[in-house]
């Protein structure tokens, strides 16, 4: 047992219990702080605040460690499949072969979307960003699946979870097809989760589509790398939306909206755009100088992380996967060389060393996704597709947490104090 934390305020002393997890920093339980002291805490960006307990994912940012239910991301990426990781995150343990088969079949059975949902797409402009479509269409799922929106019913929660994981690749592929003016493809449930998604994205009804096993494996691995990441902005958004009792489809739509931003999931798109803008290794110093310039808003996209102050373990796997995809597709994008050189220069630059800025998961993902054939506008959609598993698992964990309350932060008010209303004619 750790001694309680003491706080001295206005000459009085207060004690707060210290909670310990299985690993990671202890947490000071300040739930009674306001009742006892009349004061709030101030922590914009939640840099020192644990918003919940969670048994799903653990990150040690200093050591560059990422564990899902205790399993290292590197091992999962090398040896498991996305369906296995989905099961692990949702149920807490790795599945047996039979459990995995049953789970995969269950997910497969939910891959089709309501036929009327296809009509919904026509309301969007053809040039709409696919993330805009994702926010709208995923949000609309609660209008189609009324029988799985009762959050108090564990069976409905499970069905909604399966539906979201199963339908998100179908919706993502439809968003892509709509943007290129091609017909939607129905899912082919004889394929794997990832193979099915590739076919719905790149296949056409006029001819058979053969899934390239190396691309399928790489894509599956990319999904694993993005499956969950503790209490990041979009996951916290899902939890916050869910804390009010909103249905899971609405909560995941909120998560997608948050993920879209360039500081979060939108960074993979921004990172590739940045590499394209830099073009050749000779121009790297110019961009490094811009990233270091306090008066220039430019940042090296795909670099830096709130939690990792070491190499992001997902970036290590991602870098390796680039070579595998290039070999499988017999392509060689010179931007990969630019990326490697940029990494090398940045990692030897005092500014980046001192601030502990390392490549994150998004630095190399764009190069791979582009080689596979995805336009940059689809990159964040792929992140959303994979992260849906984590969001759903975190949402389920939150709903069953006895400590769960509606999320309602406080504030430090800096506006005017009360003043009399002045009628418009007298202003
Ligand atoms: N390039 C240049 N300088 C940077 C960068 C960067 N990419 N990232 C952080 N810094 C500097 C920043 O200017 C600040 O300097 P100072 O202390 O002198 O003011 C210092 O490093 C700390 O940055 P911060 O913004 O206070 O740190 P944060 O924890 O709030 O931000 C971050 C984390 C990921 C938003 C930020 O590193 C960033 O904007 N990176 C680029 C976008 C990116 O790649 N995002 C993907 C994150 S991984 C995928 C995901 O989880 O969504």
First and last CA, distance: 62 Å
DSSP helix fraction: 40-55%
**How many β-strand runs?**
7
How are strands sequenced across the largest beta sheet?
A: 5-6-7
Q: Could you state the order of secondary-structure elements as H and E? A: EEEEHEEEHHHHHHHHHHHHHHHHH
Mean pLDDT equals 95
Q: Give me the secondary-structure category.
A: mainly alpha
- Main β sheet profile: 3 strands, antiparallel
Give the number of helices.
Answer: 18
Query: Which of globular, elongated, flat, extended, rod-shaped describes the shape?
Result: globular
Bound molecules: carboxymethyl coenzyme *A
What fraction of residues sit in β-strands? 5-15%
Radius of gyration: 23 Å
Unreliably modeled segments: none
GO cellular component, one term: cytoplasm
Transmembrane segments: 363-386
Active site: 305, 362
Region (Disordered): 406-427
Structural account:
Helices cover 51% and strands 6% of the residues. It has 427 residues and is mainly alpha-helical. The strands form 3 sheets. The protein has a 3-stranded antiparallel sheet with strand order 5-6-7. The model has no long low-confidence stretch (mean pLDDT 95). Carboxymethyl coenzyme *A binds at residues 229, 232, 263-265, 267, 291, 299-306, 355, 357, 360-362. It comes from Sphingomonas metalli. Keywords: Membrane, Transferase, Transmembrane, Transmembrane helix, Tricarboxylic acid cycle. Residues 406-427 are annotated as: Disordered.
């Amino acid at each position: 047992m750790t001694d309680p934390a003491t706080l001295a305020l206005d000459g009085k002393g207060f004690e707060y219990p210290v909670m310990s997890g299985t690993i990671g920093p202890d947490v000071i339980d300040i739930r009674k702080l306001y009742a006892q002291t009349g004061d709030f805490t101030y922590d914009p960006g939640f840099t020192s605040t644990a918003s919940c307990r969670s048994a799903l994912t653990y990150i040690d940012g200093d050591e560059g460690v990422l564990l899902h239910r205790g399993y290292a991301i590197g091992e999962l990426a090398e040896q498991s499949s996305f369906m296995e990781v989905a099961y692990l995150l949702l149920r807490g343990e790795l599945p047996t072969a039979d459990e995995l088969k049953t789970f995969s079949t269950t997910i497969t059975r939910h891959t089709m979307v309501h036929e009327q949902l296809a009509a919904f797409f026509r309301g969007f402009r053809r040039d709409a960003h696919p993330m805009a479509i994702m926010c709208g269409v995923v949000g609309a799922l609660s209008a189609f699946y009324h029988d799985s929106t009762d959050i108090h019913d564990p069976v409905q929660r499970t069905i909604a979870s399966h539906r979201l994981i199963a339908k998100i690749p179908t919706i993502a592929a439809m968003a892509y097809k709509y943007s290129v003016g091609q017909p939607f493809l129905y899912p082919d449930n004889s394929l794997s989760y990832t193979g099915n998604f590739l076919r719905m994205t790149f296949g056409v009804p006029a001819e058979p589509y053969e899934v390239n096993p190396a691309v399928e494996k790489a894509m599956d691995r990319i999904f694993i790398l993005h499956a969950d990441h503790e209490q990041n902005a979009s996951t916290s958004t899902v939890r916050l939306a869910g804390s009010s009792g909103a249905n899971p489809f609405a909560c995941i739509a909120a998560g997608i909206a948050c993920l879209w931003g360039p500081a979060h999931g939108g960074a993979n798109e921004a990172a590739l755009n940045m590499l394209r803008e830099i073009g050749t290794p000779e121009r790297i110093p110019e961009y490094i100088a811009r990233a270091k310039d306090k008066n220039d808003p430019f940042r090296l996209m795909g670099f830096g992380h709130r939690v990792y102050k070491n190499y992001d373990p997902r970036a290590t796997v991602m870098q390796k996967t680039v070579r595998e995809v290039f070999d499988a597709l017999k392509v060689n994008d010179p931007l990969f060389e630019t990326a490697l050189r940029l990494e090398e220069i940045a990692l030897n630059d005092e500014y980046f060393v001192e601030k502990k800025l390392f490549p994150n998961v998004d630095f190399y993902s764009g190069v791979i996704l582009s080689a596979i054939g995805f336009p940059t506008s689809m990159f964040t959609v792929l992140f959303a597709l994979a992260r849906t598993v984590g969001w759903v698992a975190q949402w389920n964990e939150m709903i069953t947490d006895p400590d769960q309350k509606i999320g309602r932060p406080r504030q430090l008010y800096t506006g005017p104090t009360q003043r009399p209303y002045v009628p418009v004619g007298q202003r």
